[in-house]
Design brief:
Strand order of the largest sheet: 1-2-3-4
Mean pLDDT: 79
Structural class: alpha+beta
Helix content: 25-40%
Number of strands: 21
Distance between the termini: 83 Å
Strand content: 15-25%
Number of domains: 3
Oligomer: single chain
CATH architecture of the largest domain: 3-Layer(aba) Sandwich
Length: 477
């Protein structure tokens, strides 16, 4: 081999890698090598045998001039049979022609991944941050520094100190994908892409719009219900529509400045549609299949929660002649505990439900509470209220008369869904939290609890985490 070796792995490659490289099933000592003129080298027989065979993947002659070959710019990952290099601009011309100028501010370099198992060569862009005011280190000349992590991931750092973690192995990518899927809950539906655009025509009068029986996506046109980015019709992302209507398509988001041009006419139609939907909910017979779709998702959690409720003990102080005394462990409650569940029924819950099922999950959580607390009225007195851009004290259930059957519980869930679809945009999270704490604190109880559910879309309305924390810890007597 004519190419100088500048790095050697400390552990051998797995036999499956050797078979992928040589095409044969060979049991032999081996090491992964880094050289200046090759993408990768594998030495069979090294370091134990006297005869060593070298398998190399050579670079093109013009593609290894001044190539970083060691130090903080090359990482060997023998466990995944990869060599990762940090490159400033030594990338194939094809890649540069596709990606544009290499030395633009948005790109500080590339990671070149040589994968021996899959016989693949990949390049990943490293986002740039511009020149550093604190260092003479020019990333356009050297690229970011890289190092191997204990889990075979890669960490890079640029001249501004920006640290980024990279996963290049298939095993790590599969594990992260499974974790992400578990977090999202379901992976049977495409995620939505939101496009922001200005220049929408002036709105006329809000209307539901025509229903396309084919379910095709529509952007603009002032015609179709369930479209996105248009005007006047019910849909998502547009302006002047009477209420939200998710057609399951990518959303072309109109800017807030354009949306603010019209509100009153759309609000009047939204209120009318909301009232009609509530009438329909009250008049319709119980749909067992719909309710079971919520109940089946939380059935096991309901049983677990009822076990916890069975073990509730008194916490409030018992009044004695000469003061107050802590109750004995296991003593029965003299008064029920008081709980208010404050749920988010704002427009963003409906708007992004197709993206991450946030409204669906919240409705399942409410179903769990309504089912689990049934029959524990002597131990726990509870109610459910909502908060949205429309109000901070939206009554969904009563502490005196909680839902007693599946039909009543389904009506609560349907009301949550309907309100989220038709309400005005806005946020009353802080006011709702403070009001709920103040209200239930007035009642005598063994303990008081306020549980707030929110999609945390607070930054849009200038609400800081510290303000929310202050509201959660507030107490009125």
């Amino acid at each position: 081999m004519t190419s100088p070796v500048v790095g050697v792995s400390s552990v051998p490659l797995h036999k499956s890698v050797i078979q992928a490289v040589t095409g044969e099933s060979i049991q032999s000592p081996n090491r992964l090598l880094v050289s200046t003129c090759n993408y990768a080298d594998v030495a069979l027989g090294f370091p134990e045998l006297s005869e060593v065979d070298i398998y190399s993947s050579p670079r093109e002659a013009e593609n290894h001039k001044d190539l970083p070959s060691n130090g903080p710019y090359v990482v060997l990952v023998p466990n995944t049979a990869q060599i990762v290099r940090s490159l400033p601009g030594h990338v194939p011309p094809k890649l540069l022609s596709q990606d544009g100028a290499m030395h633009e501010k948005s790109v500080s370099g590339y990671l070149e991944i040589t994968d021996l198992v899959r016989q693949k060569l990949r390049y990943l862009k490293v986002p740039g941050t511009g020149p550093s005011p604190y260092s003479m280190w020019n990333t356009s000349a050297t690229g970011p520094m890289i190092s191997r992590l204990s889990n075979d991931g890669i960490v890079s750092v640029d001249s501004r100190g920006r640290v980024q973690i990279w996963e290049t192995s298939q095993a790590l990518l599969d594990s992260s994908l499974q974790g992400w899927t578990k977090l999202i809950g379901r992976d049977d539906q495409d995620l939505q892409i939101t496009y922001e655009r200005d220049g929408v025509k002036e709105c006329d009068a809000p209307k539901h719009g025509k229903v396309d029986p084919t379910g095709s996506p529509h952007v603009g046109g002032n015609t179709w219900a369930g479209g996105s980015g248009g005007r006047d019709t019910a849909g998502l992302g547009g302006v002047g529509g009477p209420y939200r209507l998710d057609g399951g398509h990518d959303v072309h988001q109109v800017s807030q400045q354009v949306k603010d041009q019209i509100r009153q006419a759309a609000r009047e139609m939204g209120e009318k549609a909301f009232r009609e939907r509530l009438k329909q909910i009250q008049m319709s017979e119980f749909d067992a299949e719909i309710y079971d779709s919520f109940y089946s998702q939380v059935k096991r959690h309901i049983q677990s929660m009822r076990v916890v409720l069975d073990s509730l003990q008194a916490k409030g102080k018992e009044r004695q002649r000469r003061g107050e005394k802590e109750p004995e462990p296991g003593s029965p409650q003299q008064k029920p505990k008081r709980l208010r569940l404050l749920v988010d029924v704002s427009g963003s819950m409906y708007r992004f439900n197709g993206h991450d099922y946030r409204l669906q999950r919240e409705m399942e959580a409410v179903c769990m509470v309504l089912e689990a607390f049934l029959g524990y009225e002597e131990k726990l007195k509870f109610d459910v209220y909502g908060h949205s851009g429309e109000g901070f004290n939206i009554k969904l259930t009563s502490a005196e008369e909680p839902p007693k059957n599946n039909k009543q519980r389904l009506q609560v869930l349907q009301t949550m869904h309907a309100h989220s679809q038709f309400c005005l945009s806005g946020d009353f999270t802080l006011r709702a939290t403070r009001h709920a704490i103040e209200e239930i604190s007035k009642e005598e109880a063994d303990e008081h609890f306020v549980i707030v559910l929110s999609d945390a879309n607070l930054d849009r309305y200038g609400i800081s985490p510290s303000s929310f924390a202050e509201a959660l810890s507030s107490k009125r007597t």
